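To whoever is covering the structure queue this week,

Two jobs came back overnight. Logging them here so there's a record in the thread.

Job A:
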Amino acid sequence: MIRGGVVVDGTGLARRRADVAIARGRIAAVGHVPGASRAARTIDADGRIVAPGIIDLHTHYDPQITFDPWASSSCQHGVTTVLAGNCGFSIAPARAQDRAYLRALFAVVEGMAPAALDGVAFEFETFGEYLAARAGRLGAAR
């Protein structure tokens, strides 16, 4: 049993305080779980986010989350965590003279529409600046 955490489940529902019951390695219930005190093991998640969903280990959301901080197409499928930039290329670092190349790279390799890539607000050059520009914006209205 994971008790008292703030559940973000990837369904599009608002985050909420709830328990997550696990049985035989699978999520058995989310919410107020009767009989929670009988759990073989309890994890206190107070003050923590619990994301019982799908972790997408290979995405190219690094451009998209600059204009879609929800990574909308993933959360509609139950994805609660995405990793990006782990395959050898990313939207950052992005020096001004390299941005046209990066747009073309994502358009060709990922099949992204060039118009979508025009939505990327290049308010960063280094990877550190990219991360700082995302701080407080992921999962929030822009």
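Job B:
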Amino acid sequence: MLKKIIYIGLGIAFISLIFTACKTPQWAQRTENKNVPASFNDSQDSTNSADIKWRDYFTDPNLIALIDTALKNNQELNIVMMEIEMSRNEVREKKGEYLPFIGLGGSAGVDKVGRYTRNGALEANTDIRPDEEFPEPLPDFMVGAYANWELDIWKKLRNAKKAAVSRYLASVEGKNFMVTNLIAEIANSYYELLALDNQLDIVKKNIEIQNNALQIVKMQKEATKVTELAVKRFEAQVLNTKSLQYEILQDIIEVENRINFLVGRFPQPVARDFQNFNKLVPNTVLAGMPSQLLANRPDIKQAELDLQAAKLDVKSAKARFYPSLGISAGIGFQAFNPAYLLETPESMMYSIAGDLMAPLINRNAIKAAYLSANAKQVQAVYNYERTILNAYIEVVNQLSMISNLEKSYDFKLKEVEALTQSITISNNLFKSARADYMEVLMTQRDALESKFDLIETKKQQMNAMVNVYQALGGGWK
């Protein structure tokens, strides 16, 4: 009857323990919104430039060689690769936590108890064999195997492992996103370098034109048709343009070294051909459908995987409120004399035990971890939605820029042609005294600025071609 009462009491205590442990704090969950507009520009064409491999998207062999080198030597990319390796090892660690822990062990020691104690009195009155006294002090030798295993009833450990897998996959997508950014940055810097080379070439040609005009003014002065003021103004213009070429040279050095840093090498000249820069035609870009961004953009996939990990963290944190069941066992040999250590079954020892534990009082730490996990999950939802919104806006902006720059370039080209012709006209008018020297100077200055603007517009066109490819999620495949 006494045993029955004890069992009933233990059962009631166990049920109360579970009931108490299962009361978890409430938290308002938020579901992510994956909706995106149906199209970018009312087109239903699903052909997407992001599916093109970067080797096919970029055709300049010098640029391709730079990107190849960067993907092997860029230090920041290699750092990210090590972070991926750490994430992979974390998955292994989490997987091992819900499997049994088995180990081998051995021990040796000496135990001397007081004679006037219970154990001492028992040892004093117990003979091992008739012709032997009880060893004092008593040695102890043991060798055996032991195991510990927490039964993952509530999937606390399995969910932690799944969260680690999601974070590992997110780190891989983070690497892919970095690859797209690296390729885009190298390509943009490369086209900037070509633009600077062309601007330097324009400056050198303009210096030659201005020197010719200066010689004409000097002859005009000797003929008393102009004053010394006109000569000095033309000299100042030539000196200003000569000074400009060194500013451009410094910009070229800095852009070259930016590229050298990205490809992971010390400063050296960057191979390139700038002669046909103005003839470059940006690739035709096919934007496809906005929904394809969810599959093509690595940063969106990374945010989605981080969100999955955050949801699993919530489940794992919630499971800490429930009872945990652990099993421990051991088997081996134990004796006070090594000679008896392997005698069976006398020296064999084994044990098995189970323990059930659940938090009952002062669960503040568990509650805080659970609430933090919930907050991180909601934060991951906002980050996922923000990433999708940002991706869509980036594509729309770059598509608009491509269209507007194409129209702008046509007008800039006509402006350059008109001002180039005006240089010859102004010089002829100046020679015949039908225009003053200020008109000649202003015409030369305007022509130089228009040529610079034309090069800048071409550079922006090429950059827009690169940026829309990046925005669509191209470059990492």
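Note for Job B: The longest strand covers residues 138-151.

Please reply-all if you pick these up so we don't duplicate work.
Q.
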